[in-house]
Structure formats: C-alpha cells, structure tokens
C-alpha cells in the first residue's frame, strides 16, 4: 500500500517559514509512524530531522503532533491514523520552539521541571529498614501513577493555558511537584514551602481544567488530577489569597448558604476588597442585572436547603477528624 505523508518542514538556515511537504511511501501492515519517518529519512529525503531513541514508548523522545494530536510516533499506527483521519500529517510539538523540522527545543520544558525541585529536599530522620533505609508502605503514600511520566512533553504541547501563557509551569512540572508533596519522606515544613511557591502567577490556579493533558498522555499519568490534588492541599493549608482559591471558597460558601450559585455575588467573592478590581467588574454586574442573571434578594430558599447544609457539616467534620493535630511550640520544644 502506498500512502502520502504530510510533513511540516522548517529549516532555520533558509529563513523560510514552515511549510507542508508531501512524501509518498510504501507501507507494510503494522508500520508505525516512527518507522515510516525513519524510512523517509533513509530512502527519500536525508535532510529530514526528527528525534527518537528507544522505539518502545519508554523514552518519550518521539513525541510529535500527528493529525492534530500529541502522540508518540513509535506507538502510533500508520494504518489506524489513515483510517481515522484520511491522512497522516506529522508536525513538531505545538507551543514549543522548533529547532528544525520535527525537532523542538525542550529547554523551556526542562527548566520548568527543575523549578519545582523534583527531588527530596533532605533525608528523613526516620529509618526503619535493615540498612537504615526508610520503608514506604502502600498505605502511607499514593503517587497516583505520577511516577509513570516519561517527560515526553505531550501534555505541555496540548495545554491551552501554556498556549496563551508560556510562563505557565505546565501539567508535567505540576504533576511532579504533587508527587513529592505526597512523599512521606519530605518534611512538613518543606511541603508547606512547596505549596506556597505554587500560589504565584503561572502556578496551580492558572490551569483551566481543559483535560487535554489527560487525553494526550501516553502513560495515563492524569496530570490535571494531580493539579486538583495540589489545589486541595493548598486550601487545607489555608492558602486562600489567590483568585482561584477565593473562587472555590466563595462557591462553597454560596452553595452552603443558599443551596445554589448566586452569580451576582460570585465575582465579589473572587475580587474581595480590591477597589480597582471592583471597578472593573462593575459593568459586568450591570449586564448581568439587565439579562436577569442576578437572583432576587427577596427570593425564597430552595427546597431541601437543610439537607444541603447537612452535607457540608458532615464533610467538614470528617475533614477535621482526618487532619493531623499540630503540637504546640511549647510541647515541641519540650520534646
């Protein structure tokens, strides 16, 4: 069977913009996109640049944009792509600097990974193994498959927040940060510091929860769920100053009080007492009022409001019971 492959070519030495090139190639049953690209380079056009290594979906080097979705070329079937899309179009990962053809510069990606300090800060004082090592049982920590990440960069390339804000840490770095936050060997004060560092702009609250990182991840890491766990830990620590945190807290308060969302009060919950922001959302409030989106202050409470409040009380009691008690400074110094 002979197919036409569409390749997005870019050569920085010529100064030309990236353009599509059609290449005809005979394929065999079971051929992967990476096999086809290697054959094109060896038999058709030796100037084609691509990156690959293990060919076994382990190293993550061959992550590319294949028919508009981030995939590993070594595990992507040519036949399935053609049957699904009617073509096989291959380009470099999106939203990353292109070095040449299908090769992108991964330096920004690695810089973001390093910025979250993906390592244990110090050795634990608790050692319980025969050689002095610390033994971690499954009941002590759950890493939620985050360790399966192969650093291919597909999640960052698919991230809609990263597309408009290149400073965003990205799904891979935030998932790695959550993995060390969940590690029982990490001291508590370091975990609090990690959470504080992630409150800034381009941190955990900038994720729009588009879920694309989960869809394209070849190892089922589910980075977005790791970001959600980071947000929960942040709220439990009391870090509620950012707009994203205030949105969650305000949403919860309104539902607990009224049993429904009050769209007129929700912006005020997020903005707080910032005069400049209040002036900015003023026109929005007027438009909501005109369109009937502002609930009447004299409206009746929804049926079953007490049941809703009972749910919040029950959850709050369980959270207080599950949270570890902190020793007082006097008790800590005495020990």
UniProtKB/TrEMBL annotation:
Pathway(s) of this molecule: Carbohydrate metabolism; tricarboxylic acid cycle; fumarate from succinate (bacterial route): step 1/1
Record keywords: 2Fe-2S, 3Fe-4S, 4Fe-4S, Iron, Iron-sulfur, Metal-binding, Oxidoreductase, Tricarboxylic acid cycle
UniProt cofactor note: Binds 1 [3Fe-4S] cluster.
Gene3D superfamilies: 3.10.20.30, Alpha-helical ferredoxin
PROSITE patterns: 2FE2S_FER_1, 2FE2S_FER_2, 4FE4S_FER_1, 4FE4S_FER_2
InterPro entries from the UniProt entry: 2Fe-2S_ferredoxin-like_sf, 2Fe-2S_ferredoxin-type, 2Fe2S_fd_BS, 4Fe4S_Fe-S-bd, 4Fe4S_Fe_S_CS, Beta-grasp_dom_sf, Helical_ferredxn, SDH/FRD_Iron-Sulfur
EC numbers for this chain: 1.3.5.1
Cofactor(s) the protein requires to work: [3Fe-4S] cluster; [2Fe-2S] cluster; [4Fe-4S] cluster
Signal peptide location: none
Annotated Pfam families: Fer2_3, Fer4_8
Example of a GO biological process term: tricarboxylic acid cycle
Segments traversing the membrane: none
Domain 2Fe-2S ferredoxin-type stretches: 6-96
MF (Gene Ontology): 2 iron, 2 sulfur cluster binding; 3 iron, 4 sulfur cluster binding; 4 iron, 4 sulfur cluster binding; electron transfer activity; metal ion binding; succinate dehydrogenase (quinone) activity
Known catalytic reactions: a menaquinone + succinate = a menaquinol + fumarate
Residue ranges annotated for the 4Fe-4S ferredoxin-type domain, each copy included: 140-169, 193-227
Family as reported in the entry's similarity comment: Belongs to the succinate dehydrogenase/fumarate reductase iron-sulfur protein family.
Entries under NCBIfam families matching the protein: dhsB (TIGR00384), PRK05950.1 (NF004616)
Subunit structure: Part of an enzyme complex containing three subunits: a flavoprotein (frdA), an iron-sulfur protein (frdB), and diheme cytochrome b (frdC).
Name recorded for this polypeptide: Fumarate reductase iron-sulfur subunit
């Amino acid at each position: 069977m002979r197919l036409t492959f569409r390749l997005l070519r870019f050569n920085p030495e010529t100064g030309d913009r990236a353009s599509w090139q059609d290449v005809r190639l005979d394929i065999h049953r079971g051929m992967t996109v990476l096999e086809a690209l290697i054959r094109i380079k060896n038999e058709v056009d030796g100037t084609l640049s691509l990156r690959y290594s293990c060919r076994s979906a382990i190293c993550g080097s061959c992550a590319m944009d294949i028919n508009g979705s981030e995939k590993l070329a070594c595990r992507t079937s040519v036949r399935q792509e053609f049957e699904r899309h009617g073509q096989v179009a291959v380009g470099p990962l999106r939203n990353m600097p292109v070095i040449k053809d299908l090769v992108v510069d991964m330096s920004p990606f690695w810089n973001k990974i390093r910025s979250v300090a993906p390592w244990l800060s110090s050795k634990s004082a608790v050692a319980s193994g025969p050689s002095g090592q610390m033994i971690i049982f499954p009941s002590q920590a759950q890493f939620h498959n985050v360790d399966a990440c192969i650093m291919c960069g597909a999640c960052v390339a698919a991230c809609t927040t990263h597309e408009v804000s290149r400073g965003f840490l990205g799904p891979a770095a935030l998932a790695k940060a959550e993995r060390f936050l969940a590690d029982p060997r990490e001291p508590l004060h370091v975990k609090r510091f990690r959470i504080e560092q992630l409150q800034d702009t381009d941190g955990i609250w900038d994720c729009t929860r588009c879920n694309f990182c989960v869809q394209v991840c070849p190892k089922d890491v589910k980075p977005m769920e790791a970001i959600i766990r980071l947000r929960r830990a942040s709220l439990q620590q009391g870090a509620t100053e950012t707009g994203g945190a205030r949105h969650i807290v305000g949403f919860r308060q309104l539902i607990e009080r009224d049993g429904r969302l009050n769209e007129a009060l929700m912006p005020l919950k997020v903005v707080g007492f910032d005069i400049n922001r209040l002036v900015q959302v003023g026109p929005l409030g007027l438009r909501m009022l005109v369109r009937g989106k502002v609930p009447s202050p004299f409206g009746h409470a929804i049926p079953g409001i007490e049941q809703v409040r009972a749910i919040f009380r029950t959850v709050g009691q369980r959270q207080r019971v599950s949270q570890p008690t902190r020793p007082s400074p006097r008790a800590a110094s005495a020990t």
